[in-house]
Design a protein that fits this description.
Blueprint: H1 3-17, E1 21-24, H2 26-33, E2 40-46, H3 50-60, E3 66-70, E4 75-83, E5 89-99, E6 101-105, E7 112-116, H4 119-124, E8 134-138, E9 141-142, H5 152-157, E10 160-161, H6 167-173, H7 176-188, E11 191-192, H8 194-203, H9 212-224, H10 228-238, H11 246-249, E12 256-257, E13 260-261, H12 265-279, H13 283-291, H14 296-299, E14 301-303, E15 307-309, H15 313-327, H16 332-344, H17 347-354, H18 358-368, H19 372-381, H20 388-416, H21 423-430, H22 436-450, H23 458-473
Parallel strand pairs: 2-5, 10-11
Antiparallel strand pairs: 1-2, 1-8, 3-4, 4-5, 6-7, 8-9, 12-13, 14-15
Bound molecules: cytidine-5'-triphosphate (CTP).
Length: about 475
């Protein structure tokens, strides 16, 4: 099912039912910006019942797709998926139908109050002017005429985020929009209206009526953008960050003692997040980058002869990650994964300082397991020096470390291997039953290979076996003999 096919199907039903249907929101915005998304997600406003319309459409569509109904809100979502070879389903298109409505959180309640209204009222109640435009569904697809009551097109051109109503009203009605503002500024690379910024600062405490799950979801959408730092700067300057991640705000600031100052860990952290965004699409890994230094303010000290120190900040960081994970209702797996990266992010640096020995590399491999590649991405992103020479040198150190990791992994593969001279052959040649001596001879052959004394091949292993076997047979227990 593609977009033009679905628009035609919608038009047919709309004509038959004599209702008007409009595409609204992000779909209209992105089309005007020339942005094509891999996964289309279209919101439609129906001048009538959204749910009833979706049900009628459902009857006419025979293709794979499923309807999810939300009768309490008079909305319904239609999801088209494609089954992949491995049996999993891939989302192709998601469309949502809602009756023209206003939806607002009142002063106390966590549940929005929904009332049906005209299209204009509906658009007025939306978050930003660039998201408050509509295009009617017509026979050929979408009407060229854009319903744009609040100057969304001009704001798109000027790359500025503004609210259709007084921002105080827009944000107070749905406080999640303050987080959305930071996300859209980063996602679209837009500026933000001064009065909207002021309204975020004023209404920040209202965020508490939004569920932790929705806050987390929006935070992750910000982390998904290519320069999340832009959004985090807005969250910090407005004070909104304090309302859900005060640990990040606490990284701000530079202290100076005896002319020595430490780096600004807030600015550093934001650079690390932007850096890692270039290396991975994983938002959980990007979140780990945001949290990697949160233990620093709590462990900061100024030591005579040494200067600023943040000893054990990675241990405190792990504890703090668990607190944040609970607060944002993150899954246990994600929390533990982030905690692990925060806990170990200093180890590769220490390892390089202390010497890249086999055993140190092996410890790193064992501690991190499958997450080692992700840790190294974080470590590379953690280099924020403005000096290109230093940057190059430090990245090179990581190239070397990765080479050493590969080498040790190779050897470890060797550790899993079996002696080329197998137990059965040892027993037959020595006249032994299964018992400790057979094991000892096998281990001796394997150790000789690992120590590089002989090659990992049958002939030299057999030769070595012939040389050492008598030594072991001298000490064999009687019962082990055939
Ligand atoms: N909307 C709103 N207030 C919210 C959430 C959504 O006014 N808290 C409106 C906006 O008009 C928005 C539309 O609902 O454009 C659809 O919301 P959503 O799908 O969350 O965002 P998009 O704008 O479509 O952007 P994107 O797909 O990039 O997330």
């Amino acid at each position: 099912m593609n977009v033009s096919k679905i628009l035609k199907a919608i038009y047919k039903v709309a004509k038959k039912e004599k209702v008007e249907v409009y595409a609204v929101g992000g779909f209209v915005r992105d089309r005007l910006l020339g942005i094509k998304k891999k996964e289309a997600d279209i919101d439609f406003v129906v001048l009538g019942s959204g749910l009833e319309f979706a049900k009628k459409l459902d009857k006419t569509l025979k293709e794979e797709g499923s309807l999810v109904e939300f009768p309490d809100f008079d909305t319904a979502r239609y999801v088209f998926t494609k089954e992949l070879k491995d049996g999993t389903k891939k989302k192709l298109l998601e469309i949502e139908f809602a009756g023209a409505r206003s939806e607002a959180y009142d002063k106390k309640s966590r549940k929005p109050k929904v009332e049906s209204t005209s299209l204009e009222e509906d658009l007025k109640r939306r978050d930003f002017t660039v998201n408050a435009m509509a295009q009617q569904v017509i026979a050929s697809g979408l009407s060229k005429k854009i319903i744009d009551i609040f100057g969304g097109q001009v704001d798109l051109e000027n790359k500025i985020l503004k609210t259709p109503l007084d921002p105080d009203e827009t944000f107070s009605e749905d406080p999640l929009r303050m987080l959305r503002a930071a996300r859209f500024v980063a996602q679209l690379d837009f500026g933000i209206d001064k009065s909207a910024l002021g309204a975020i600062a004023k209404n920040k405490k209202r965020l508490k009526i939004i569920s932790a799950e929705r806050v987390q979801e929006e935070l992750f959408k910000l982390l998904k953008t290519s320069n999340p730092s832009i959004g985090f700067q807005i969250l910090y300057t407005t004070g909104l960050l304090d309302e859900f991640l005060p640990e990040i705000s606490a990284l701000q600031g530079v202290e100076e003692i005896y002319g020595q100052h430490h780096k600004n860990n807030f600015e550093h952290t934001l650079k690390v997040v932007d850096n890692i965004a270039e290396r991975t699409d994983s938002t959980v890994l990007r979140f780990a980058a945001l949290l990697h230094d949160i233990g620093k303010p709590g462990t900061k000290s100024f030591l005579k002869g040494r200067g600023w120190a943040f000893d054990m900040h990675e241990h405190l960081g792990l504890k703090m990650v668990r607190t944040i994970g609970k607060r944002l209702r993150m899954s246990k797996d994600d929390t533990e994964y982030i905690g692990k990266l925060v806990r170990w992010h200093q180890q590769p640096i220490q390892l390089m300082d202390e010497g890249v020995t086999d055993s140190a590399v092996r410890r790193l491999i064992v501690n991190l397991g499958d997450d080692l590649d992700d840790l190294l991405k974080l470590c590379r992103s953690d280099i924020t020096t403005g000096n290109p020479k230093k940057l190059k040198k430090r990245l090179k150190n990581y190239d070397y470390l990765e080479k050493r990791i590969e080498e040790v992994m190779e050897t470890d593969k060797l550790r899993d291997f079996q002696s080329p001279v197998r137990g059965e052959e040892i027993m037959k040649e020595c006249g032994l039953k299964p018992g400790p001596t057979v094991g000892k001879i096998k281990t001796a052959i394997e150790e000789a290979i690992l120590d590089g004394k002989i090659k990992n091949e049958y002939k030299p292993a057999k030769k070595y076996f012939e040389e050492i076997k008598d030594e072991y047979l001298k000490k064999v227990n009687k019962w082990e003999r055939v």
